[in-house]
Amino acid sequence: MIGNITAGLYATGSLPTSYESITTVTVGSGGQASIDFTSLSSYSSTYKHLQIRAIVKTAFANAQDGLKIQMNGATGASYNYHYLGGNGSATYSGAGGASAQTFMQSESVAGATNANIFGVMVLDILDAFSTNKNKTLRTIGGVDNNGSGVVEMWSGLYLSTSATDSIKIYSFNGSNISEYSHFALYGIKD
Amino acid sequence: MPSTYEPIATNTLGSATGTITFSSIPSTFTDLILLANGNSSTLVDTYLRFNNDSTSGLYSTTRLYGNGSTAASDRPAGQTNQILAGDFSTSSNTITIIQINNYSNTTTNKTALIRANIANSIVFANVGLWRNNNAISTVSMSTSSGTFSIGSTFTLYGIKAA
């Protein structure tokens, strides 16, 4: 059939190593309250940007939940965000400022109502280790629950020029992050 | 650190076709990214299927899109045997980026995150669900009618987590 190709045309291992895996968290039985990437400043001379790729589900009783993101343990009013989303029938947009403990609240991960459905998120932190710039993040995420769901894009600001040392991700509704949720942290070089 | 973002296979069309299929995808990566860049013989919707499964009721798509004057969101009820990936156009190159995270696990349904652009007409952000726990070994992208044009490129990348 025209256009049908079998994977494996490329030999692996011969490409530049500008995008590398740092660490992965796979949530085990019983779930866990948060995903914590720590001691990241040790990578400040190795990578320029960070990316987190995830599938996420929480124990929240409703069909959808969101995620909060906190950096360097900062819990003061040092975060801002904007978002754009669609829920299958309407579009919406909003913003928040001087937000404590909340960097982004993406309502785009699955809650407990559909056992096997997980939301998907890709989060980029550009110039994560700069000591001259406030930290800017962006996410695209979504979940389709077969009859409900959202797809959203967020931008976020952490008002600090400190190099990123830790990232905490936790449920918007305080629920545990569920078993099989998977968060992979990658570093991107210059 | 190991290199982890690698091209698995690519196809630059030498003849027009309505369906691109990547088969025998190894399970050794964590995520897949399908990058499509090209044109089509007419303005078309594009569809995504996994493992050649065309069963009605197993797919659903939530879309967010804007055409330069209005933004909208929908979940097309008639599209339950494939994910809606976006559009392809005759006049302006379409770029579609499809992220399929944790494609090879056997414990969750599979969700694709899609960004598609036709620069002169529309931009999409879609999330699509395939209600099946099987590992994905085949990814197909097709047109609603007509064909992808000669020269269109489709590249499948794999990302491997530590």
Notes on the structure:
The complex is a heterodimer of chains A (190) and B (162). In chain A, a hairpin with a 4-residue loop joins strand 10 and strand 11. Chain A contains no helices and 13 strands. Chain A has an 8-stranded antiparallel β-sheet with strand order 2-13-4-9-10-11-6-7, with no helix packed on it. With 190 residues, chain A is mainly beta. With 162 residues, chain B is mainly β. An 8-stranded antiparallel β-sheet of chain B has the order 1-12-3-8-9-10-5-6, with no helix packed on it. At the A-B interface, strand 1, strand 2, strand 4, strand 6 and strand 9 of A face strand 1, strand 2, strand 5, strand 6 and strand 9 of B.
Overview in brief:
The complex is a heterodimer of chains A (190) and B (162). With 190 residues, chain A is mainly beta.
| Main beta-sheet annotation of chain A | 8 strands, antiparallel
Instruction: Based on Cα principal axes, name the global outline of chain A.
Output: globular
**How far is it from the N-terminal to the C-terminal residue of chain B, by CA?**
9 Å
| Beta-strand residue percentage of chain B | over 45%
- Report the principal-axis shape of chain B: globular
Strand content bin of chain A: over 45%
Helix content of chain A: under 10%
Q: Radius of gyration of chain A, Cα only, in angstroms?
A: 17 Å
Assembly type of the chains comes to heterodimer
In helices, the fraction of residues of chain B equals under 10%
Radius of gyration of chain B: 15 Å
How do the strands and helices of this protein lay out in sequence?
The complex is a heterodimer of chains A (190) and B (162).
Chain A: E1 4-6, E2 19-26, E3 34-37, E4 49-56, E5 64-71, E6 77-86, E7 91-100, E8 106-110, E9 119-126, E10 135-144, E11 149-158, E12 167-171, E13 182-188
Antiparallel strand pairs in A: 2-13, 3-12, 4-9, 4-13, 5-8, 5-12, 6-7, 6-11, 9-10, 10-11
Chain B: E1 5-12, E2 19-23, E3 31-38, E4 44-50, E5 59-66, E6 71-74, E7 83-88, E8 94-101, E9 110-118, E10 122-130, E11 139-143, E12 153-159
